[in-house]
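Please fill in the sequence for the structure shown.

STRUCTURE ENCODING:
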């Protein structure tokens, strides 16, 4: 039997040149290396979550900016539309006040009284009104249109086939497509019974042509 020497304990093998205390730091380092990957994963997940939140906030701010830009563009168009409408109304009101003067000028021209300095002033006024967009309309012989004509006199005539303006009592005026005063006219309608007589005459002429065709033997057959 081997006798154990009292006072001596077994110790782990230690490499030559190393002390027993060197083994403990190596064990601690090994445990830190094991815990490091788990810590990096948690940090990466946190950064990804922050990035997603930042992207979401950026998308929301971008949508808000686009909506504000669209609203601003609509506001600009509405303001421009209103500005044009206000200008047109102001011009129409001014020219409406000048219409009686233009009527006087037209009557003076018809009676040969537009002469001398009065003629020059009148023509200048008409030129300025035309530059502001004023247009005169209404001619004899044109079909009556209740949207632009106002009938002040009514009669019948055998030589018209529809309601026709036979006299312009007061010309109408418009600015662009907007009528500021309808043309005041005298209208004439077809004579009652004239259409019936005309139809009978046409039927008689057609019958005469048929009779003449039959008297001549009719068309030759091939």
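FILLED IN BY: designer on duty
SEQUENCE:
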């Amino acid at each position: 039997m081997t006798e154990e020497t009292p006072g001596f304990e077994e110790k782990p093998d230690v490499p030559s040149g190393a002390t027993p205390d060197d083994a403990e730091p190596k064990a601690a380092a090994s445990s830190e290396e094991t815990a490091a990957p788990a810590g990096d994963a948690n940090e990466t997940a946190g950064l990804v979550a922050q990035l997603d939140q930042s992207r979401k906030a950026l998308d929301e701010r971008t949508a808000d900016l686009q909506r504000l830009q669209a609203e601003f563009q609509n506001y600009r168009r509405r303001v421009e539309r209103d500005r044009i409408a206000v200008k047109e109304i102001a011009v129409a009101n001014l020219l409406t006040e000048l219409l009686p003067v233009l009527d006087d000028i037209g009557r003076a021209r018809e009676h040969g009284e537009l002469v001398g300095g009065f003629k020059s002033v009148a023509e200048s006024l008409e030129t300025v009104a035309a530059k502001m967009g004023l247009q005169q309309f209404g001619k004899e012989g044109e079909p009556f249109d209740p949207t632009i004509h106002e009938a002040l006199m009514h009669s019948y005539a055998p030589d018209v086939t529809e309601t026709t303006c036979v006299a312009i009592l007061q010309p109408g005026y418009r600015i662009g497509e907007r009528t500021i005063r309808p043309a005041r006219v005298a209208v004439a309608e077809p004579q009652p019974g004239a259409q019936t007589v005309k139809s009978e005459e046409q039927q008689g002429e057609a019958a005469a042509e048929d009779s003449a065709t039959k008297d001549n033997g009719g068309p030759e057959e091939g």
